[in-house]
Amino acid sequence: MRTLVEIRLGEWGLGKIAGDVLLIAGELVANAVEATPDREIRVRFAREVSAVLLAVWDSSAKMPVVRPVVEMVLDDVTPDARALDDGYDDGTGGWGLPIVQALASKCGVTETRPGKWIWARVAC
């Protein structure tokens, strides 16, 4: 999917926003896969007049929860060897949607019953 998005951005002459769009795509797809393991997801990618729109659908009725952003400094972060163990969750995940919000000019969720589209618009 990343390769297809990158190729299309290049064809549209929008390589300058590829980094942001690819990061958003990765976050939205990862969230959809996590929400509906072993189920179908759908991806839409469209060029608009002054933006690109990326949307990812999954069949889960569960709405995304955005982690509150807290200010941190490097001294707040301490290495934890357990983080390398399979299945270990130290509770530091959940930063995908704040990243999407920071990079997108607009983003949101549209319920579809079943499921939802989570979308992000990036200005170009």
Spatial order of strands in the largest sheet: 1-2-4-3
Reading off the top of the CATH hierarchy, the class is best stated as Alpha Beta
Structural class: alpha+beta
Might you state the CATH topology name?
Answer: Heat Shock Protein 90
- Count of helix runs: 3
Low-pLDDT stretches: none
Element string (H = helix, E = strand): HHEEHEE
| Total beta-strand segments | 4
> Which overall shape is indicated by the principal axes computed on the Cα atoms?
globular
Tally of separate domains: 1
Protein name: ATP-binding protein
Keywords: ATP-binding, Kinase, Nucleotide-binding, Serine/threonine-protein kinase, Transferase
GO molecular function: ATP binding; protein serine/threonine kinase activity
InterPro entries: Anti-sigma-factor_SerPK, HATPase_C_sf, HATPase_dom
Written overview of the protein:
This protein has 124 residues and is α+β, with helices and mostly antiparallel strands. The protein has a single domain, classed as Histidine kinase-like ATPase, C-terminal domain (Heat Shock Protein 90, 2-Layer Sandwich). 29% of the residues lie in helices and 23% in strands. It is built from three helices and four strands. The protein has helices spanning 2-11, 18-35, 96-103; strands spanning 41-47, 51-58, 106-111, 116-123. The chain has a four-stranded antiparallel sheet, covered by helices on one side. α2 packs antiparallel against α3 (96-103). The longest helix is centred in the first third of the chain and has 18 residues, at 18-35. The two termini are 20 Å apart. The mean pLDDT is 90.
